[in-house]
Amino acid sequence: MKRRFIDTVMEPLRQRLTALKVVFEHITTKDGRRSMYVTATTTWRATITPQHLMFNRNDMLVGGIRPHLYCLPILKRNIHQQALRELVASGFTRAFLGTDSAPHSRHRKETSCGCAGCFNAPSALGSYATVFEEMNALAHFEAFCSLNGPQFYGLPVNTGWVELVRDEQQVPENIALG
After folding, report:
1. Is residue 89 part of a domain?
2. Active site includes 100?
3. What is the dihedral of CA 1, 125, 127, 30, to 10 degrees?
4. Would the pLDDT of 157 be above 70?
5. Residue 72: inside a domain, yes or no?
6. pLDDT at residue 40 above 70?
């Protein structure tokens, strides 16, 4: 999310339509984080993907392109990744989980004009947990994953639960389409 867009489009819109609920899907920059902090409104929220918390553009590009890390919005520099990690680690209640999981067949990703998107559904929760643990912020994990979103949308909180077990997990190289 570009700072100019926030300042010239979203801020005037927020001032005119004070009750309008807005979710910035998959913020990726320190400017996106800044807009969440400096805006006093309670009607703006943001989602953050696991890939934008775990990786930056160096992970995707250094030593050769890794097409399975190519997603839109594209991975940014490490200063932006760190800003997002600090946001979720702070327990900021206006940010929540947004996987943006996008499965594509291998031949559509590994081509000269590959599809954008990371298929993270099988590993998303564990990926988020890893980041929260690395940031010493597991106390904020449940709210980010399960409470902040429903609260904003006025939805009931899911009464089911998931037990995460700390264990080494290898993400499969391939997942069958079907």
Report:
1. yes
2. yes
3. 20
4. yes
5. yes
6. no
Q: Pick the range with the lowest mean pLDDT from 5-19, 112-126, 150-164.
A: 5-19
Q: Is residue 149 part of a domain?
A: yes
Please indicate, yes or no, if residue 131 is contained in any of the structural domains.
Answer: yes
Catalytic residue among 7, 31, 59, 100: 100
For residue 37, give Cα distances in angstroms to 44, 71, 83, 87: 10, 25, 12, 9
Q: 78: domain CATH number?
A: 3.20.20.140
- How many helices and strands in the chain, by DSSP H and E? 10, 3
Residues 89, 130 contacting (CB under 8 angstroms): no
Domain that holds residue 47: 3-153
DSSP letter string, 22-61: EEETT--SHHHHHHHHH---SSEEEEE-HHHHH--HHHHH
- Please report where in the chains the tokens 């940010």 appear, as a residue: 95
pTM across the whole model: 0.92
Cis peptide bond upstream of 73, omega within 30: yes
Alpha carbon distance 97, 141 (integer Å): 10
The domain total for the chain is: 1
